[in-house]
Design brief:
This protein is an all-alpha fold and about 140 residues long. It has one domain. It is built from 5 helices and no strands. Helix 2 runs parallel beside helix 5, helix 3 runs antiparallel to helix 4 and helix 4 packs antiparallel against helix 5. It is elongated. The protein starts with 16 loop residues before the first helix and ends with a helix. The mean pLDDT is about 90.
Length: about 140
């Protein structure tokens, strides 16, 4: 049973608490956050809210341990452990490749999300869409 105001529409986890609290209090630091400001729970007048929300959802999809990419790589890793040495090596190489691609995409995404939240920078809509598409493509490629 959901409590009043509770929703499953936005994926958040513990890594989002710190950046969200810093944003709400008007503070900032030089700590590299793994999470992002949960703008979906904030004032609706945030510039480029829809773009930031889509970018944040794609970020969580590929970077959160329980995001779609994390769950898919867990299946592959389990399959690798059940296989022979050659299967294990091949699947672990696939996971390493996916992780490197994820790191590049997620690194740029969190940079944009943090700049928008703390420096109030404008988000390049085309770049955001390219990153979202790259995250979706990467996730779809993992089977």
């Amino acid at each position: 049973m959901r409590r009043q105001g509770e929703t499953a529409a936005t994926f958040t986890d513990h890594t989002d608490v710190r950046p969200t609290l810093l944003h709400l209090t008007g503070l900032s630091d030089d700590y590299a956050h793994d999470g992002r400001v949960v703008i979906e729970a904030l004032d609706e007048s945030i510039p480029q809210r829809d773009t930031l929300s889509r970018l944040a959802a794609a970020y969580k999809m590929i970077n959160a341990p329980l995001g779609e990419l994390g769950r898919r790589t867990l299946v592959i890793s389990t399959r690798a452990l059940a296989g022979d040495d050659a299967t294990y090596e091949a699947l672990e190489m696939q996971i390493s490749s996916v992780a490197a691609q994820r790191d590049a995409i997620a690194g740029r995404m969190i940079g944009i999300l943090e700049s928008a939240a703390f420096a109030h920078t404008h988000v390049d809509e085309d770049e955001a869409q390219r990153l979202i598409a790259a995250a979706e493509s990467l996730t779809a490629s993992v089977r």
